[in-house]
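User: These chains co-purify. Model them together.
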Amino acid sequence: MLVPISWLRDFVDIDMPVELLAERLTLAGLEVAHIRYIGLPQQHPPSLRQPTSDHLVWDREKLLLGRICEVRAHPNADRLVLAMVDYGAEELEQCVTGAPNLFPYKDQGAIDPPIWCALAREGATVWDGHSEKPRKMTLKGRELRGIYNKSMVCSEKELGISDEHEGIIILEHDQRYAAGASFADVLGDVVLDIEFTPNLARCFSMIGVAREVAALLDKALRYPACDFLAEGEPISEQVAVDIREPALNPRFTLTLLRDCQVKQSPFWLRRRLQLIGQRPRNNIVDITNYITFELGQPLHAFDYDELCKRAGGAMPTIITRLPQPGERLETLDDVVRELGDDTILVADAAGALALGGVMGGGDTEISDKTRNVLLEAAAWNNISIRKTIREQRLHTEASTRFSRGVHPSQAILGGARGIELMRQLGGGTVARGVLDVYPEPPPTVTVALPIARATQLLGMEVSLDLAADVLRRLEFAVRIEGEIIHTTAPDHRLDISADSAVGQADLLEEIARIVGYDRIPETIMADEMPPQRENAPLLIEERIRDNLVGQGLYEVINYRFTSAQAEAKLLPDNMISSLPDADYVTIANPASSERDVLRHTLLGNMLENAINNARYNKAQQVFELGSVYLQTGDLLPQEPLQLGILLMGARHADWWGGGKSPDMDFYDLKGLLESLLHALHISDFAFQRGTHSSLHPGRSADLLIAGERAGSFGELHPQVAQRLKLTAAKAIIGEFAVAPMIEHARRLHDIAPLPTQPAVLEDIALVVRADLPASEVEAVIRQAGGRLLKDVALFDIYTGDPIPPGKKSLAYALTYQDETRTLTDKNAARIRKKIIGAARHRLNAELRA
Amino acid sequence: MDKSIDDIRGEAIESLAAIVDSESLAEWRSHYLGRRGAVAVLFRQIGSIPAAERAEFGKRVNALRGELAGAFDERAALVESQRLARDLETDEIDITLPAHPRRRGGLHPSTRTHREFQTIWADMGFQVYRSREVEADDFNFSLLNLPPHHPARDMQDTFYTSDPRVLLRTHTSPGQIRAMRELGAGGSKPIRVILPGMCYRQEQVTARSEIQFTQVEGLAIGRNIRMSDLKGTIAEFARRMYQPDARVRFRASYFPFTEPSMEVDVECFLCGGKGCRVCKYSGWLEIAGSGMVHPDVLRNGGYDPAEWSGFAFGMGPERIAMLKHGIHDIRYFWGNDLRFLRQF
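Assistant: Joint model of the two components:
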């Protein structure tokens, strides 16, 4: 909300720089997002850092309040005139101007009363009214079509007040200022843009902000007068009110002004509305807006005669009720609205008149012809208004306030002040009395705060007097009894709870806010420390991350969102999907149709990453550790943690040492995985031929941990790769469940003693069937080698001459060792013989010559 | 007659002194000390020397051999050191060629920030408690003092699932209720946890806002947790996370699940509080929301607010990483462009 300091000063004295006030407000929870300066200089208190404003500062000596006493024709130009301006000096200043709004006075002789204006004298700096981009200029004397000119009468744009440059600004007489007064004193202002959190409903007005300022600065708050001069027939004889839904409309008040004149508002009122971003319309409507902003009580004005007409000449009755089925209302914005079942309406016997607390209807709106004004000041249930706002997508100044909560007590003040202002600015006679129907006054809220509780919770000694004083400044009624402060919440507050604990917290917040959070000390918790437990799953997760990073992988984090279509792309034709057999968590209001479910697999988004990254990278090695979401029948889905790995492209990217680096393949990922499992001290794992539908069936494997399938990895299925246009290199991908890794990772494991006996090293090459899995050969070797065979390492695979077709040669480096004695050649030869025998017998293997 | 021993010595020493390369050196050795070398020839002559002179002759040949071998070793060492010096002078590689790349990977910047957080909070006795991302409306809102139609629900645009009772959590705060219920033993045990994790909001994705983001939330519950503790604890965190002498300030704010509520600002670590573009010339950066746990939330966690109190705070790791690294576009985080990830 925009808050002009000039308006605020109506209610509270401010004796500090505006910038410091803004800081105090911000620290107290009324965040000043922006400060707009109008003509006045920015101040720089040393304690404050702030952006420098580049607004126009009005020169106190050269920008003056003037009076145009006469407008003469320019001898050489039809489109220019000479304004003769009194600025308190002996002689009038002659200004050449093209302002269209002065032309009607041309050659009409002395203007009476003179026109109040802004006069910029030679040397004054103003905005260039003709420049598209903001540009400042300094006035210099020069000839304008043969007439020497050194001053000018300014437009709003030239002053930096608005973008208006159609004519000069014309003020109304204000007896506080004489011609020649500094213009900065007349219209100079500072406007705070304050953002309110939802709990600050009470601040949504000038008086609301002034109340906070008064409390913060410990100043008196001056309320505006809220009584009115009433000399007409009693209102109760001219209109009735019927509230059908007291829960939604706890209070409805009416006042009536007869024989008033609808016209333009005076300058001061238009100016204030302009400062807060509201467009002036006519005096009646402007006053409803003005009161909304001044007191926070939205008002609505009806054309009383229209209501009488609708009542067929009888006394009108205002009814507040829920809509009838299918009922519609055309609102002031010319929209015909279908009404939801629980939209509270203001109506009469003939039909709906307004969306209660939100917007009026067109039929009874104030027009230039209106003579008699019926003024509504009501209270509405904030939740009901919220629903209407959402349903109708209609935000108004009234609904903004009612939806946050306006205390019903405010209605009577707003109505009274509104009708009196209307009488003053529009003339006419106010009907006696207020028609006040108030079926549901909110309960009075009292809270008892033991001062010891305040001290304990704030961690700071708070005296009874200080706490009581702060609460009084905020208009709580306070009574001290022993060590307890008994408070009654003031009428404008709906946010203080009657619940003892919550109410106390409400009061503590007020005390801390006004005293200042900077006054509360910083302490170390003295409270009992809870037992420190180790978070084993998290530790293992972090070890997985560290290990993979150590192996050269980058961690990615993807959107958890995807679409069923995107995941379906991962399934080749005529295959049964091995993605989880669960429903999707479906988003009712997705950001886009590509992100309308939560993922079942990490692979989809990782492959999308790969497509993007392939454009700039010869090699990619990434992993993701994150949840997938499986809807399995319970209210809430399962969120198992998965590990995804993707390798693609050159094994040695950017290698220049000669030859081209081969691409990464299945075995890279297998090695990476073994290394990871080794680091987690998981020994009970195995690989078997892959079963994952998105992987190449011949070039993939499943990982088994403790005999259970814990994931799959290998080459992306060629059909999927083609579909995704991921063909630059083979994508090697895998997805694994993290739970079995956490379960089987050993935190404690024994270390084997270092051998004291020398090892015997020996190579052996076996010629076997080409399609025999290497793991079987190794298994046979290990079994035959027994206890003394410590290590088996494949170091060469060879096919081709002289190995017969259909065969391959596998060469292994074997390590024999006995912990207790030195092995002799004879011992070694015996083991070797056993190995060769077993290989020949069980694998039909030949020893390669 | 054969050359005298002295002649051989003179000749050998002289020629050795002229040798500068290892090939000539080898030749010299074979010529004088080899199996058929001059010294060997002298040894073979011993038989033909008159017996009376034989011993003397033998001694002299032996001495000669020792002397030449010594001279050789000396010269060889010299030649070798000269060769090395020459090599070092001439054997140059182009050090401007690209490196042979070593494979290294990296953690996601979000993870890195989380780890920094976790380390600091762990030192202060706050342990990680993880909580689900797809949540019941109750836990995300109602139990946190945000009943249906509460104005603060407007502050967060929620992703709902096809079941209106279920949503994607808009903050990590539902974990507060779960932690209190799980660890609080019916409101009888103190708690200190942090709740990290992914949260979701239905927003326009722009350089400044994302539909998913991580949060770290902290919760301390005890019989005597004070607002001054909240200030002291967060200030200590800020001093460890940012600068040892960072100033911290607390501004009144509003969160439905805390009261009183405060925003926490830390002195801008980019300009030292002098005012810069990033801190909008205020000298302060907002780093956290915080407050004393609302009595209703304590109750919903199983605690009696007349006996127990607590504080809670929440921070955004992505925002902090953005500030620290001058990242101007939050979309980088889940874009997973390797050119971005490699810079951490």
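Residues 2-90 of chain B form one domain.
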